[in-house]
Specification:
The complex is a heterodimer of chains A (192) and B (130). Chain A has seven helices and no strands. With 192 residues, chain A is an all-alpha fold. In chain A, helix 3 packs antiparallel against helix 4. Classes of the chains: A mainly alpha (192), B alpha+beta (130). Chains A and B meet through helix 5 and helix 6 of A and helix 2 of B.
Chain lengths: 192, 130
């Protein structure tokens, strides 16, 4: 009645849920592991977790990207014990602005933009969102913007790398039987 | 070969976006490097000015914060934090500051060390709109 394997629509929904769950779980894992890496400043992050937000955006659209990004920030902070600490708000602001810009960019440019461009925009958005909150809540001095260009350059470099990784991941996923079937539009019964 | 493969994964719009953002960031870096040298060091604790000194005079001072004393050294027209009780020592890692508008913040110890130009109105500028 609920998720009969013969019903292609519910199977589609189920598959989407499974993949989103996997993306969110992997994003949380990367988010948590990244915090273990040594870094010059506490909020200087590589943003590898964004790979899964990107992948979700390209595979399933804006809503999926939002769920992966917000789950990653919430659950990741819970694991790190930084939930509602100052760093959490930086992370949240960066994540929200990044996801917003990525969704808008993808929506506006459609097929003309690839994962690398979306990722670069997202990385710049992440750096900007963090700076705004750092300025607003933590430092409250315009001098904090002196760090902004360096943050932006660093974010851009990691953004391009993440975009390329997401592109590889998308290529592999699209070669997977579960997604081939979607494109042809005739589901075969041996796949869940 | 490797680079060609990577480039093949980007669209023209992707490359344009990356180039525009990189150009913006690099020009911001140059924009900031051209600021004039500052004249004095101002230390604030929780928004109140607790210490002021000219950059031209070499000296070392102890600044008290909630965690304990932070040591600020002024030497050769530059200021830097040489010792701090905070856990991550980011303020020490921020190095020397000399230009007007430069900033060293020690968030755990509630200290904000900034360099100001001689003219009083200097500090009212938003650094990005200058």
């Amino acid at each position: 009645m609920t998720s009969s394997p013969d019903n292609p629509i519910s199977r589609e929904v189920l598959r989407r849920r499974i993949f989103l769950g996997l993306f969110a779980a992997l994003a949380v894992a990367l988010h948590t592991m990244e915090a273990l890496l040594p870094s010059p400043a506490p909020w200087f992050r590589l943003g590898f977790a964004n790979i899964f937000t990107l992948t979700a955006l390209f595979l399933f659209g804006a809503r999926a990207a939002w769920s992966v990004a917000l789950t990653r920030i919430g659950v990741g902070s819970l694991f790190l014990g930084t939930l509602f600490a100052p760093g959490f708000f930086l992370s949240l602001a960066g994540g929200v602005l990044a996801t917003l810009l990525m969704v808008v960019a993808k929506d506006l440019c459609g097929r003309k933009i690839g994962p690398v461009g979306v990722s670069a925009i997202g990385a710049a958005g992440h750096a900007t969102g963090q700076m705004i909150v750092a300025w607003w809540l933590l430092v409250q001095h315009a001098g904090v913007w002196l760090l902004y260009p360096y943050f932006l350059l660093f974010a851009l470099a990691t953004g391009v790398v993440n975009g390329l990784v997401a592109d590889y991941l998308l290529e592999i996923l699209k070669g997977h039987p579960a997604f081939k079937e979607d494109r042809q539009g005739n589901p075969s019964s041996d796949l869940v | 070969m490797m680079i060609r493969d990577l480039l093949g994964r980007t669209t023209i719009l992707d490359r344009a976006i990356v180039l525009v953002l990189a150009a913006a960031a690099v020009s911001l870096v140059f924009f900031q490097a051209g600021r004039p040298p500052g004249e004095k060091v101002i230390v604030e604790r929780d928004g109140r000015v607790v210490f002021t000194a000219p950059l031209a005079v070499d000296r070392t001072v102890r600044l008290d914060g909630p965690l304990g004393p932070t040591t600020l050294k002024i030497h050769d027209g530059k200021a830097c934090v040489t010792d701090s009780p905070c856990p991550l020592k980011i303020c020490m890692g921020m190095g020397e500051v000399a230009r007007s508008g430069d900033l060293v913040a020690c968030v755990p110890n509630h200290l904000l060390i900034r360099v100001s130009g001689g003219r009083e109105k200097d500090k009212e500028y938003d650094l990005l709109s200058r």
